[in-house]
User: What shape does this take?
Amino acid sequence: MGSVTRGTTGPDRLRRVERWLAGPAAGPLRTAVDPLVVDLGYGAHPVTVLDLQRWLRRVRPDVRVVGLEIDPERVAAARELTAGLPGAPRFARGGFELSVPGGGRPVLVRAFNVLRQYPEEDVAGAWELLRSRLAPGGVLVDGTCDEVGRRAAWIALDAGRGPRSLTLSVRLGGLQRPSEVAERLPKALIHRNVPGEGVHDYLRALDAAWARAAPLGTFGARQRWVAACAEVARSFPLLDSPARWRLGEVTVAWAAVAPAGGALRPPAGS
Assistant: This one.
């Protein structure tokens, strides 16, 4: 289920989300009975699937990574390129239904630069279908990044409760203002960066805090970013700490940035 995407990719393009998945988001994988992970819509080359497996083996050496693509030619090419590699991921044709060879429900699904290529109105249905295929306690990550992985943004969704957070991750060197990442927001938010929307308020707050922290730039962009995040944390429900901020990363609770009008909001009480 789904449509063929452009399929552009490259080595280490998704390193920012992989570092996060092997770090603060690793809990479900660490405790899973079946450590099954799906990289959905990996593109024209399987390199990001191999990258993901390498990172996640730090958490679970026995992780089972499956790359799913709707284009059968891409699946055939991935199998050919990885043939003979010891412990290589498996590749299969599949889409939002998450038909994994041999069965099983993944504890983690990464769908990067996939839903960005779909209409906004299709996002909620895709999220619902993907979440219904997760193992109990599983996590879906829907995100987007630039061509070389220097700016990325992703939404984490729980199997049961839906969207829970938005993470921004940027290369601090050369950053003029945090809102530069806006063009890489996932589809659920990219058209919502307008006055009256939570994500717009959040990005404006980051920009303002970044500007006020300019004097700390003398000590490096990292110190400036940490100070900006600390200021924003006084007004927004940030879910991480300076240990993550120092990486050019910041995570906020979904309720603070969810689209206005109730669209794509978590269930009441979540």
